[in-house]
Q: What sequence folds into this?
């Protein structure tokens, strides 16, 4: 499921460089139902795409569609911020 990583560098969020892969990345499109005021946990292994992250402050972005009915939806990117410590 598509996501992206950014690192905080001198006050700005900068996209983390992806590893050079032999093949293009193909993403899946899951539909998760997230109830109002609820949470969902999603486990991610980013090492295959980004490698081992060095010490730093990061955020992971994921696009979420708030679907109400056909033609009535909003799309936003939500972030989780985390730190890699030594």
A:
């Amino acid at each position: 499921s598509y996501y992206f990583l950014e690192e905080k560098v001198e006050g700005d969020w900068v996209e983390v460089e992806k590893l050079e892969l032999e093949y293009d990345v193909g993403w899946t499109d899951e539909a998760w139902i997230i109830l109002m005021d609820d949470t969902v946990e999603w486990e991610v292994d980013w090492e295959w795409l980004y490698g081992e992250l060095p010490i730093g402050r990061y955020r992971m972005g994921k696009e979420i569609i708030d679907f109400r009915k056909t033609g009535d939806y909003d799309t936003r990117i939500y972030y989780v911020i985390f730190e890699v410590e030594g």
